[in-house]
Amino acid sequence: MDDSIFAVCDTVAGDSGFQFLQYMRDVYLGRQVSDLTAEEADEIGHKARELGLVVPKGGGRSDMMGLALSASGYLVGNISKEYCNWVDNGRVMPPPRPSEEWIAGRDVLDLGCSIGRWLWEFKPYARSVRGLEIRKEYIEIGKVLAQREKMTPPQVFHGCMEELDHLFPPESTDFIFCRLVINHVSIRKAIRNMIALLRRGGVLWLVVESFGCGWGKLCKNGGIKGRVFGGFGVVNSLVCELTGRQLNFRYRGRHQSAHRVAYPSRRWWKSTFEAMGIEGHIIEASDETFCIWGRKE
Questions:
Q1: What own/partner pairs with CB < 8 Å and gap ≥ 24 does 65-72 have?
Q2: Beta bridge partners of 177
Q3: Beta bridge partner(s), residue 128
Q4: Where are the domains of the chain?
Q5: 239-254-209-219 Cα dihedral, nearest 10 degrees
Q6: Model-level pTM greater than 0.90?
Q7: What does the alpha-carbon distance between residue 255 and residue 265 come to, in Å, rounded to a whole number?
Q8: For the chain, how big is the Rg over CA atoms in Å?
Q9: Less packed terminus of the chain by CB within 10 Å, N or C?
Q10: To 5 degrees, how large is the angle CA 177–CA 181–CA 182?
């Protein structure tokens, strides 16, 4: 983890921390969606350059102000987008949302929890909440953001879903939540590990990206690298659908070095759940996402 992240944490914790996050979201999106004045944006932009988050345009993801995000800047921009969008949405999770009765008085685990914002929502009525996140930067900045929300940061472990059996004891959790992450890991292995962690009667709740989402990414990507990654996702979806396995290739990216993204069909998700002893139930969300959940009997 880059040591500059700790300087970012200090900035986020400061009086103008939210304005800093709004600016970084604007840069990440490449357009202004905040209500920052030109003077505020200029001042915060100077701070972002000092932190090494934005650099002169010429490489990386370009923004509307003729700058580009560095590798650290991309991570901070993505975090800023997640947090600011959550605030703009009234600090509530977009649908579909799990039933409160599945969480109240239960032990909850959020896999791929990012900054932990869903844990913040679960915490007031769950018995316990824990998270798992692969990027240490998200964990550290998430602690600061929790404090901005005037709450004790939840316990978040560093690790990946494929190694759940090394991180948590079996049958130790009542509700497992995973939102828009599982397409990017070894899906069958991750589901098997999740089920092993559930107590009897526990619920597994996954919000996943559909094949339409993967196809849309392929069509929208303009650069050669983007089309290669988008095409790989589409091909891998078909491989996963036919064999139950995923191809992977190693390429150092911003989140992981082994890429195995796949977007199998709703039918595949249901049959995979059922093959592992859980009846899968589909809740439609949009053309690009849906939820599948099941209870361990």
A1: 65/27, 65/41, 67/27, 69/27, 69/28, 71/2, 71/254, 72/2, 72/4, 72/5, 72/8, 72/137
A2: 110, 205
A3: 107
A4: 4-88, 100-295
A5: -80
A6: yes
A7: 25
A8: 20
A9: C
A10: 80
> What's the CATH number of domain 100-295, 3.40.190.10, 3.40.50.150, 3.40.50.280, 2.60.120.10?
3.40.50.150
**Amino acid in the structure at residue 7:** A
On whether the CB atoms of residues 138 and 114 are closer than 8 A, the answer is: yes
Q: Render each residue's pLDDT in the chain as its tens digit; 297 residues.
A: 778 899 999 999 999 999 999 999 999 998 888 999 989 999 999 999 999 999 877 644 444 557 789 989 999 999 999 999 999 999 999 999 999 999 999 999 999 999 999 999 999 999 999 999 999 999 999 999 999 999 999 999 999 999 999 999 999 999 999 999 999 999 999 999 999 999 999 999 999 999 999 999 989 877 888 888 899 999 999 999 999 999 998 776 555 568 899 999 999 999 999 999 999 999 999 989 999 999 999
**Furthest-apart CA atoms within the chain: distance in Å:** 59
